[in-house]
Design a protein that fits this description.
With about 250 residues, the chain is α/β, with parallel strands linked by helices. It has 2 domains: about 70 residues, Orthogonal Bundle (Arc Repressor Mutant, subunit A), CATH 1.10.10.10; about 160 residues, Rossmann fold (3-Layer(aba) Sandwich). Helices cover about 55% and strands about 10% of the residues. The chain is built from 12 helices and 7 strands. It has a 5-stranded parallel β-sheet with strand order 2-1-3-4-5, with helices on both faces. Strands 6-7 form a two-stranded antiparallel sheet. The longest helix has 24 residues. The N and C termini lie far apart (about 65 Å). Pfam families: HTH_6, SIS. This is HTH-type transcriptional regulator GlvR. One of its GO terms (biological process) is carbohydrate derivative metabolic process. Keywords: DNA-binding, Transcription, Transcription regulation. GO terms for molecular function: carbohydrate derivative binding; DNA binding; DNA-binding transcription factor activity.
């Protein structure tokens, strides 16, 4: 109820009805249409037009839906089991996985700069990644703004490390398109290798853990992404130390 498109369709009088209803939720559920019209300083016709724009045939249907809306409580029980985390560490303790980390580190060492990108919760992880790699001597930047300008010679020949659980973020895909145009190497860390971002990448590390949502909010664990970033950082540090010793 009260979706973006519905609210956008309201005129000024209908918006005033909406504001009154949301400010007086407990009262409105018991009010008659004439009472609501008087209290919100509009006509009953305006109230009926408002109800239609909310997808209701009349005021009675609106009151019923509104009552359910304000009484609605999402109860989502989430698993406290950490088996998927343990499974992730077991799956990534392989020679093949280590070789992929090595390839990514070699690409980072060859590149002009390293840039992390992500949005929402993945944006927070991306900031952590940039900070972590900077701590081992690889100065890194983070872009967590979906509208941040990513055009220009500055980005040419960079390694771009993409953090994305779903691998389907439209804004991040737009960034990747621009980075690929500038000959950047794309490394993605996603939950599945079948996602769009994974397929666009030069290197992809999938981690396969269950998606978890509470309502509209994604609370899928970020531990695998953090672990992967830290492995890249530690490998990077060791490669630098080995090259110094060889000189």
């Amino acid at each position: 109820m009260f979706s973006y498109s519905q609210i956008k369709s309201l005129n000024d009088l209908e918006i005033s009805v909406y504001n009154y209803i949301m400010d007086n939720k407990d009262k409105v559920r018991y009010m008659k249409i004439r009472e609501l019209a008087v209290e919100s300083h509009v006509s009953t016709t305006t109230i009926l037009n408002f109800c239609k724009k909310m997808g209701c045939s009349g005021y009675s249907e609106f009151k019923l839906k509104f009552k359910l809306f304000i009484e609605e409580k999402e109860i989502t029980k989430v698993s406290e089991d950490n088996t998927e985390i343990i499974d992730f560490f077991k799956k990534t303790n392989t020679e093949e996985y280590n070789e992929k980390i090595e390839d990514i580190v070699k690409a980072i060492l060859k590149a002009k700069r390293t840039i992390f990108i992500g949005s929402s919760m993945s944006g927070i992880v991306a900031r952590y990644g940039a900070r972590y790699l900077s701590s081992v001597g690889q100065f890194s930047l983070c872009i967590d703004d979906p509208y941040y300008p990513t055009t220009g010679k500055f980005y040419e020949n960079s390694v771009v490390i993409v953090c994305s659980v779903s691998g389907e973020s439209k804004d991040i895909i737009g960034h990747i398109n621009r980075f690929k145009k500038d000959n950047c190497c794309i490394v993605s860390i996603t939950n599945t290798e079948n996602s769009t971002i994974a397929k666009m990448s030069d290197y992809n590390i999938p981690y396969y853990v269950p998606y978890v949502k509470v309502g509209i909010y994604d609370i899928t664990t970020q531990i695998p992404i953090i672990s992967i970033i830290e492995r890249i950082g530690r490998k990077l540090q060791n490669c630098r130390e080995e090259s110094i010793q060889d000189e």
